[in-house]
Design a protein that fits this description.
Length: 92
């Protein structure tokens, strides 16, 4: 799965890591629903760090559509709340 972190770039994530990313996404969604800014910032950071560490960076010169787009770390809780669906940021 090609995942874009806005303002940063794309990462290719192997299917085997999606369950872990969904767990982190669930924590992010719970923090956003609770309106807990500190937990939200921590959960968003953990999700993005996991994408960076588990994924392989796609070279900037390679043009590939993103299957998933994640906000950058500076994105507010209010903005992420607008992006969340019933499944969080990551479907599945």
């Amino acid at each position: 799965m090609i995942t874009r972190i806005l303002g940063e770039g794309q990462y290719e994530i192997a299917e085997e890591h999606l369950d872990h990313l969904n767990e982190l996404d669930s924590a992010l969604q719970a923090a956003a629903t609770a309106g807990d800014e500190a937990a939200f910032a921590s959960a968003l950071s953990a999700l993005l760090d996991a994408v960076r560490s588990l994924g392989t960076r796609v070279p900037d010169e390679r043009i590939t559509p993103s299957e998933l787009v994640l906000p950058d770390e500076g994105t507010s809780l209010a903005r992420v709340s607008e992006l969340l669906s019933d499944e969080g940021l990551i479907p599945g």
